[in-house]
Design brief:
The protein is mainly α. 79% of the residues lie in helices and 0% in strands. It contains five helices and no strands. The relative contact order is 0.17.
């Protein structure tokens, strides 16, 4: 295995684990942390019971489906990158793009649960727990890294290294 292939492999491993960690935190935020913050003083069992009484639920299946799309894409990127012996930049930028788009995935995955909480408890559907902020920060930093990486690639292509 060449040095470039090892880099691609390690970037792929770290990329999949990072996207998975993002999805796990997002699911935990949507299904546990935010409901507990939105209905202070109630346990998760009490929250679920109140929601069931109101004909609502957190939509766990939809949450896992939407967040699972990002994880599945990350695994696919890793497999294709390693099998096709891609330049390490390709998986790195792709994983950054998946993390950047994670904010959109989080919003889509949390929308139904937020509305169900709003309908049950007469509150807004917004995030009550602060644990959504790290997700948005990671997505923003990934966007910045993509721009910086793109700018560096342009500079390098215009000023190639001298042998």
């Amino acid at each position: 295995m060449t040095r470039i292939q090892r880099r691609t492999l390690w970037i792929s491993i770290v990329g999949v684990l990072t996207v998975l960690a993002y999805a796990v935190l997002a699911a935990l935020q949507i299904l546990v942390l935010n409901p507990l913050a939105a209905a202070p003083g109630l346990t998760m069992d009490e929250i679920r019971f109140a929601m069931a009484e109101a004909g609502e639920n957190l939509g766990q299946g939809a949450v896992f489906f939407v967040l699972g799309i990002g994880v599945a894409l990350a695994v696919a990127v890793a497999v294709v990158s390693v099998v096709r012996r891609a330049d390490p930049v390709v998986p790195a930028m792709t994983f950054l793009a998946l993390l950047m788009l994670g904010a959109v995935g989080y919003f889509v995955a949390s929308f139904g649960a937020g509305m169900a909480l709003a309908d049950t408890f007469g509150i807004s559907g917004a995030d009550y727990s602060p644990w959504a902020r790290p997700l948005y920060v990671v997505s923003a930093l990934a966007a910045v890294a993509i721009v910086v990486g793109g700018a560096m690639a342009v500079v390098r292509s215009r000023h190639p290294a001298q042998p």
